[in-house]
Amino acid sequence: MCGIVGYVGTENAVDIIISSLKKLEYRGYDSAGITVLNQKLETYKTVGKIADLEKIIPANFTGHIGIGHTRWATHGKPETRNAHPHLSSNIAVVHNGIIENYMKLKEKLISQGYEFLSDTDTEVIAHLLHSTIKNNTQFSLLDAVRHVMNEMEGSYAIAVLYTAEPDHIVLARKDSPLVIGLGNNGFFAASDVTAFLRYTKNAVYVNDKELVLISPTGVEFYNNDGQQIEKKVDIIEWDEEAAEKAGYEHFMLKEIHEQSASIQDTYAGKISELEGRVILDELKMSDDQLKNLQRITIIACGTSWNAGCVGKYLFESLAGIHTDIETASEFRYGDPVLCGQVFTLAITQSGETADTLAAIRSSKAYGCKAAAITNVVGSSITRETDSVLFTRAGPEIGVAATKTFTAQLIILYLMAIHMGTVRGRLTPENARDILVGIKQLPGQVQKVLNNKNIIKECAEHYAKVQDYFFIGRHVNYPVSLEGALKLKEISYIHAEGYAAGELKHGPLALISSETPVVAIATKGHTYEKVLSNIKEVKARGAEVIAIANQSDTEINKYVDMVLRIPDCHELLSPVLSSVVLQLLAYYTAYARGCSIDKPRNLAKSVTVE
Ligand code: AGP
């Protein structure tokens, strides 16, 4: 995830910016850069680590005002020309977030004669500021930033330097974090407090649509109407390690809590709710190609495979396309029956899973068109496939996949709706229904998170059991698989995920009062069937924890505990149920004293067979 920093004061800005950027390294990044303002803007940037940036900075590079950035690629590959800061003549900008309407703005700026040196959305901000000041000569930098904020759609935390106003940095935010540090020898700005905690513990959190001006003598805060406002100073009690996790005890818990934002970032710019359609140019498939598509073969491992399994239901029910879901390690040594009409889709958060890469290579040998869903721009899978759909979940540090899973689901919804609309299976009204539902997910995820205490109580109650069962039907069947995978991965409890209707064909023999069963019983066309399966396991003595919708008043009669999710479209419930299951796994592992972020025997990226 990108990180921005800024400093103005009496100390050497280069040293402070470099040390602050190092503190943001934990967020994950692929390139870095710095600009210092000494009458003119002097910029250094590179692909790689902060240590690589230090190597190219000359010893005499100093100053008292500057901005810096660590980039996690979203628009454009990890290349030096895409690294921040981005410049437009006498303006330098660093940015964290996504400008959704950047293509439209870019076209306008190109028609005005602006030349773009990068593939990023951020360069648009630099040129937009330059053009605003050029066309409104009375504007200060603060005025220009305020003006440009009204033109930009999406999320941003930005820090701007302007040679004509050499003693201050202007900052602004919308839907992307920004915090100001108040030091004795200067003022700091950063994406999170970790960056400047060694210099000051006095911080002011910037709210959406607020602007900030930091100079050697003080800080001024403004609202979007240009009025100066007062802000509260917080004293940060965290040490640096706690701050990296934003105060959460584990990266996994932090990442679970980031899902409201990561879901929004993933669908940003891809939904036209008004027209009831999805904008998915990255898929690089014409309407004719989509209409003629006969089969989709999804290839993935682990959690990504579980997401793919939800995808199978979506492609079949929303787009009417026969879909297979293949385990990459099996597919690569099987004898798949494929031909040019089959579209293969690799799902891999890391983009580096050896089995998935090998399987997609072998599918290409059959002449299939291949696409990938991944979270990492520039990863190996992006070079192996014809098109790439990026989840924008930001780096995931906990070994257990959480926010990348829900982001994968979002891309799968968008793909299925897009294909269904083009193929005439979905009317714009039907599509709009689901798209409206997708846009409600961030708020609904937040509601689930707000109720985490009951999930914690449930986890603690059953923390000592040796076996768990998870059951669900239709799209909730893969959710049950994911719930079981998450639990065994981090708590080391044996857990099985089952299609609820399959229990009676064998596993029912294992059900007893010792095996709690988590039943995903959200409203939908299989709800009644799941109720019957709940009765089946209750009759064998099992205690049942149901995941059910908020408005379901019936469920309490049949189960021992209910974990609620907000009411939603039946196909969208996997996103919300998964958040519940992630928290259940997390709190169970916590109660058992397990190593949550680095479970035994597992690695984040499985680059070997
Ligand atoms: C998920 O919690 C696991 N860490 C694991 O199953 C993972 O999903 C699998 O190894 C696939 O990884 P990928 O998405 O990076 O390809």
Shape: globular
Q: Name the beta content range.
A: 15-25%
Q: Roughly what percent helix?
A: 25-40%
CATH class of the largest domain: Alpha Beta
Class per helix and strand makeup: alpha/beta
Largest sheet: 8 strands, antiparallel
Protein architecture, described:
This protein has an eight-stranded antiparallel beta sheet with strand order 3-2-4-1-10-9-11-15, covered by helices on one side. A seven-stranded antiparallel beta sheet has the order 5-6-7-8-12-13-14. A hairpin with a 1-residue loop joins strand 2 (31-38) and strand 3. It is α/β, with parallel strands linked by helices and 609 residues long. The radius of gyration is 25 Å and the shape is globular. The longest helix is centred in the C-terminal third of the chain and has 23 residues, at 428-450. It has three domains: 3-243, Aminohydrolase, N-terminal nucleophile (Ntn) domain (Glutamine Phosphoribosylpyrophosphate, subunit 1, domain 1), CATH 3.60.20.10; 248-440, Rossmann fold (3-Layer(aba) Sandwich), CATH 3.40.50.10490; 451-609, Glucose-6-phosphate isomerase like protein, domain 1 (Rossmann fold). Helix 10 (302-319) runs parallel beside helix 14 and helix 10 (302-319) runs antiparallel to helix 17 (476-491). The model has no long low-confidence stretch (mean pLDDT 93). The structure holds 2-deoxy-2-amino glucitol-6-phosphate.
